[in-house]
Amino acid sequence: MSAVPVTTSPSDSGAAPPRVVVEQVTPSVDGGRYPVKCLVGEELTVGADVFADGHESVAAAVAVRPAGGDWRQLPMRHAGNDRWLATIRPDRTGLWELDIVAWIDAWTTWRHDAEVKADAGVLEPVDLAIGAQLLADAADRAGPAAADAEHLATLADRLRGTDPASALPAVLGDERVDHLMWHHARTGTATRLDRVRHLDVDRERAECSAWYELFPRSWGPPDRHGTFRDVAEHLPYVAGLGFDVLYLPPIHPIGRTHRKGRNNATAATPTDVGSPWAIGAAEGGHTAIHPDLGTVDDFRFLRDRAAELGLELALDLAFQCSPDHPWVAEHPEWFRARPDGTIQYAENPPKKYEDIYPLDFGTASWESLWTELRGVVQHWIDEGVRIFRVDNPHTKSLPFWDWLIADVRSRDPDVIFLSEAFTRPKVMYRLAKGGFDLSYTYFTWRTSASELRAYLQELTTPPVSWFFRPSFWPNTPDILVPPLTGGSKNAFATRAVLAATLSASWGIYGPAFELMESTARPGADEYLDNEKYQLRTWDLTRAESLAPLVQRLNHIRRDHRALRRNRSLHFHPVDNPHLLAYSKTAGPDRILCVVNVDPDRTQEATVDLDLAVLGVRESDDYVVHDLLGGESWRWRGRRNYVRLDPASETRWPAHVFSVEIERRR
Amino acid sequence: MSAVPVTTSPSDSGAAPPRVVVEQVTPSVDGGRYPVKCLVGEELTVGADVFADGHESVAAAVAVRPAGGDWRQLPMRHAGNDRWLATIRPDRTGLWELDIVAWIDAWTTWRHDAEVKADAGVLEPVDLAIGAQLLADAADRAGPAAADAEHLATLADRLRGTDPASALPAVLGDERVDHLMWHHARTGTATRLDRVRHLDVDRERAECSAWYELFPRSWGPPDRHGTFRDVAEHLPYVAGLGFDVLYLPPIHPIGRTHRKGRNNATAATPTDVGSPWAIGAAEGGHTAIHPDLGTVDDFRFLRDRAAELGLELALDLAFQCSPDHPWVAEHPEWFRARPDGTIQYAENPPKKYEDIYPLDFGTASWESLWTELRGVVQHWIDEGVRIFRVDNPHTKSLPFWDWLIADVRSRDPDVIFLSEAFTRPKVMYRLAKGGFDLSYTYFTWRTSASELRAYLQELTTPPVSWFFRPSFWPNTPDILVPPLTGGSKNAFATRAVLAATLSASWGIYGPAFELMESTARPGADEYLDNEKYQLRTWDLTRAESLAPLVQRLNHIRRDHRALRRNRSLHFHPVDNPHLLAYSKTAGPDRILCVVNVDPDRTQEATVDLDLAVLGVRESDDYVVHDLLGGESWRWRGRRNYVRLDPASETRWPAHVFSVEIERRR
To answer: Complex ipTM above 0.90?
Structure first.
């Protein structure tokens, strides 16, 4: 198992190096450098190539433990072509360790040879003596387990007895012998992995969650800055839509120096409220609450009220400062100084963002900075927050996130981090490898059926599915792109259906989404009169709201566990490039979606279903119930007709079918 | 770059952890656990994903050195999507080390920003001051290189001078500044790989060689045991066929106890010569020479005579003993003892091989055994042997081979080991990962076009092509399988063409192959009257010999370097399942083969050439010269007709075309 051993004499460790090879362990992220993600209680199949020289049998076990706990070994089984498998099911959240142990299995080798020789009539007394020796040696090793030792010694004696030939079937047929020999007959040096692998075991919301983002300051009465108490009053609306995570943009005091005005104007008027991401003012920084939102007690009231309604609060971690942030005066060493003594503001040349001072994660004082930032996270954890949406993590040092997340989760493994890394694919993936549980994705820009199919196949198959969990957002306060800028209700519906059914985690920025806000600021892929820079007033009672569809989708997700995971996603061929057909399954729960990505035009097609994926046999009748439109059809065989017509009053631009099999006798 | 860092405080190493990520290094075997193979003087492109947080530029270099030598750094270039590449060309054989160094490139970042700001007219004095600081800091670091330091300091002064705006173009346009800053401006902690990678750099015969195997004892006059001197007399025949490696089965004394008779008979007659693989007798063991073959001087005579004719001797390493081997008495601890005190002979229950005692590589005395075996190899290296064909390496401890080969090659990197591991695929590959330069393959049993295509695609693409080099043998003394058992000359020709053109290394067991010996012993996939157990007399002058074709193939291989490597192999579509069309290219040298794998029937087809692979444009005329049959055809475009007719006197069941482009003006 060692790398290129350039030595001039064999190792002098005493025992010969282990003979069994263990390779190609799965699941695996970058050869074990990063943990594999899974959910608590979920089954995970561990595989490895296990083999040795020669013709002897090998045996292998997966060893697992919660970090710091006791190791447990589970036997692996040979699945052919030297591939060995075992299924584990981690039963608590947090970091787990995984190793593989493999050894030459002298007992199984002897058993096989003895059986073959006995069948061929060439078994000799010495063969039985070898078996007896194996049993006796194992009995010695089993000493502390007295009952085991005694049983093995008895079997050894039988093989050495006066009638060994008749003893052989009795020994080989003994119900306990293989089990006892698996435990006690290991000889020689066992092989172990050259590095222990890690599993990051999460609670369910780390993969499956429905997020609603709102700006609290817009939820008061018209013309007054909204408060946590105002939001608390509207929580039944959000909970009623079926969401389970309520995400608030930064709730901290907002800087005044270089504050941005409405529509991102360079100069703010005295009444402009500023961007919540320009964090820090005289009132405090990342652990303070904006006075206009309320007090810490108001925050706790909102948190508790949300919890009563099944909503978990998610806060924003935006590790950057306004020029007014207390850290600027207290810790200038945490920022990058320019030769003229000024602090470097954010820029993307030639653009300048003078309202934001980035923190310098590589400062010589990085230890005190990192520790302070961990303190911020811990502050909100102590306030009962367990979910964080991290703003632009890709502009902060990657080793910082590796350290921060591992550190926080070592103490509180239920904390979930969502990465808002709209950046290059490898950076996005590296953040996930380093610990982020969930990530925003390119879904927001993937609109054609072929783009979506290719992207989802990448996300839901190894290796990506082993470390990256997507969260699909049709919109965010920062991003308003086609097809939503057209304002078509069908387009909004299509994007909602895709997000909610393709990905186990989805979210919307509301009420802009369900109220189908669709006007972009000229020259920007961003909303006009964006809440990032001003208060808005929303009419939640508007007749044209998409709220009923959003609610329906969330209820379907709650009722159908097939939609609560990503790995079973399967695309089915369909002979119209504007339609996407896919299924997700979880045991008997089968969801089949057919979505029109050209939703303002009628599209029809024949879907060519992979019946095996759906658990349907060629001879089965099956009924597809449209959980959106309410209609049902009886289908049979692979090829079935679908039609999605935008003019129809009762139909959405998608079918979300539950598939029910009517098995013939 | 570290694995899951579970700590409760940031590292206290002083400097912040490196910000640049280096991932997905290629070429790579099992994440760097085993070396990548390449040939001396060959170009190897090293790739890695390199990126960091934020918007600063990164830079990366490949660092390489022969093990123990001095590191050299070569810049990597960005090839898009965060992938970085550099091409290296190791210039001596042996183990090399490879690392990647990557850092935040402050100079390139500043250069880019300054250019953008200058273009937009927003460049400020402080921006120039930042550049001047970078140059001055680099000048300080370049101190020992005085000329560099002075040049950088001068540039810094210009940016700080009275007319900095006009200085900017001069500084950015300086011819040396980027080069100097690449060397001297590195700040912060650079990233390195978490383990240094290894390259195993071989001489050309480790990939490209033509082997001829013969039993010296059959090369004397009829009815006398042949000698090394007899073989020496026939060397012009072997060299004339164009081979460059002459491989001899074991040349050691042969055991008498349980000696096998002709045709593998359990009992030998007194005149039976026995199998050369039953090594060891009163006359000696693995370092002795069978007295009937001659003396050590005769061996040296043969070796030197072969060298004069361009033939390199390859010896057989068969690490097993006859019961008469001196080790059995001197070192019983190197064998496995049974409870009755006897030594365990080889068996594959219910079959017994009582003429062979396997060595016990896991014995408690493994160190003295391994050292003795290394001594055997060194003995023959000292006798001028640099190529070993290793018998059944898969029945000996894999860590033993890892150690032995690395140890031998650390002293003599020109030694080549060919693995005769006809075993399961993962074991075969693991032997190659552990150091075997070449390996026998499943080619011997792959006969249909689709089987061959699939197998060759596996062998010639990563990751397999990074560690495994095939040697294709149509026959061996142990293996006589269809299609050769039919005795058809066309079948022999097809197998020779496939082996010699698909694989850069090929070999035959002769003269059985070229004389088209085709009778199997009933019930065995082995020759009747096999030379393994008896002397044979061969009539090399037989009219029906395939020698002219074998000679032609070896000469084509010498003249066309396209055939001397494996990685350029490309299959072209052909509309007849009995034909295989493939090309190999090396610069302007282009070979295109069309082979009939149903060679006793006429097969015709249209070949649909991937012209780009051949360097041919749609508008080109090109001429295909059949290097076997001698005819030429002028072709144009992708689709061309071929016909291979067994009845034709002048044609072989294959075309081996050299492709010559006639470019239009």
So the answer is: yes
